[in-house]
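quick one before i forget lol
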Amino acid sequence: MTPFLEILYGLSHDTGLKLYPDQNEACKLVLENGIHVQLEMDPATDNLILGGIIAETPPGKFREKILKHALVANNQEFPNYGCLCYIHSTNSLALYDTLPSKNVDTEFLIDFITVFADKVQTWKRALEEGRPGPNIITSASSDNPPMFGLKS
């Protein structure tokens, strides 16, 4: 059995869902809140890739604001549960992450997928409300000097 099939088998067993890879060797989970999370293996690294489309972002100033907001979000402290990216072919903002497939605990993976999907939902809701993203809490305070004495 391949590592991906083992992961899907474990998820199927623990969730009661029947999960199978499709013709592209991927598996799309449709969660109760309507969020889609796709799972697939990276053949080059044997890492599990998780991906979720947040929303289409039409060209213009608002998309520029969204992408700037996404860059700031990608620079947040770990765990950040995914990296925001732009998919040019579909003009979409998406979230992806990778996990090592070796020793992936099913309980951990279920928790990770839940947090990952919540992040997709949070971003989706913000964009639907006309905001360029959710409020981002930064760890740097104005009282702290810049790292390495750099000037901003």
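fyi The domain at 3-133 is CATH 3.30.1460.10 (Yope Regulator; Chain: A,).
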